[in-house]
Specification:
Helix content is about 35%, strand content about 25%. It starts with a strand and ends with a helix. The protein contains 9 helices and 10 strands. The chain is globular and about 50 Å long. About 40% of the residues are buried. By secondary structure, it is an alpha/beta fold. A 6-stranded mixed β-sheet has the order 6-7-8-3-9-10, with helices on both faces. The chain has helices at about 45-50, 75-80, 95-105, 115-125, 140-150, 170-185, 195-205, 220-225, 230-235; strands spanning about 5-15, 20-30, 35, 60-65, 65-70, 80-85, 155-160, 190-195, 205-210, 215-220. Helix 3 (about 95-105) packs across helix 4 (about 115-125).
């Protein structure tokens, strides 16, 4: 069995002469958080689409716990434990909080969807809102509900595309704290695309930097933060 939950090997996505991704390689260990940073258009969301099966590969492979899933669609990869959230929430505003989490669990084929929903809601401090409509939650709670929907069935790998978008500083830190707790208690591995550098460098075990579809830096947060090219291009005085 592979030591990695995720292995991305020489992945490329080309559209004619445009190289959206070109030779991307990265790994993710069990219970690890890896942050992905880079300017808009660098390829961060595209690599998540490639990993989750939403875009076909020009070359390369994606392995989940040692299994090559490159030929599988997004639904099949989700059933194998690869989940994701999007920049915009996928919650149903007019549906009860607990009801939609339990429904998502049922659709995933979880035998005891009620228990699964309860566990996820407790983990994200949403249990007290179970009888409310999702539209009646604050935006921070709605983002956590979106995360809850991605966590039903206890996936082994969670892909998050800007989960802090639109949140206040306090809400961002609260969500970051929940992510860290998840990796510790549930041993979920997280691939995190996020523009909030404080969050990325504060909770990530490793950081990968993209530019024009390629990886230009990769390593421990302190190592990446100290890279002159990264500091100049993306971090500026915040580094």
């Amino acid at each position: 069995m592979s030591a990695y939950v995720l292995e991305v090997v020489d992945v490329a996505i080309h559209y004619g002469g445009v190289k959206a991704l070109d030779g991307v390689a990265l790994t993710l260990e069990k219970g690890q958080i890896r942050g992905l940073i880079g300017p808009n258009g660098a390829g961060k969301s595209t690599v998540i689409d490639a990993i989750t099966g939403r875009r076909p590969l020009t070359r390369g492979s994606v392995r989940l716990a040692g299994e090559d899933v490159s030929h599988l669609g997004a639904v099949e990869r989700r059933k194998r434990g690869l989940s994701r959230s999007f920049q915009r929430t996928s919650i149903f505003g007019g549906m009860g909080v607990r009801k939609q989490v339990e429904l998502a669990s049922h659709l995933m084929g979880v035998a005891d969807s009620a228990a699964d929903a309860d566990a996820v809601l407790r983990e994200l401090d949403l249990a007290q809102f179970g009888n409310l409509l999702a539209e009646d939650l604050g935006y921070g709670e709605q983002r956590r509900l979106d995360l809850a929907l991605a966590l039903v069935g206890r996936p082994q790998l969670l892909m998050l595309d800007e989960p802090m978008a639109g949140l206040s500083v306090k809400e961002s830190h609260d969500l970051a704290r929940h992510l860290q707790a998840l990796t510790a208690r549930w041993e979920v591995s997280v691939l995190l695309v996020e523009h909030d550098m404080d969050v990325v460098f504060g909770i990530s075990d490793a950081v990968t930097v993209f530019e024009l579809g390629r990886v230009i830096a990769d390593g421990a947060p302190a190592q990446v933060r100290a890279d002159p090219r990264v500091r100049e291009a993306y971090l500026g005085s915040a580094a």
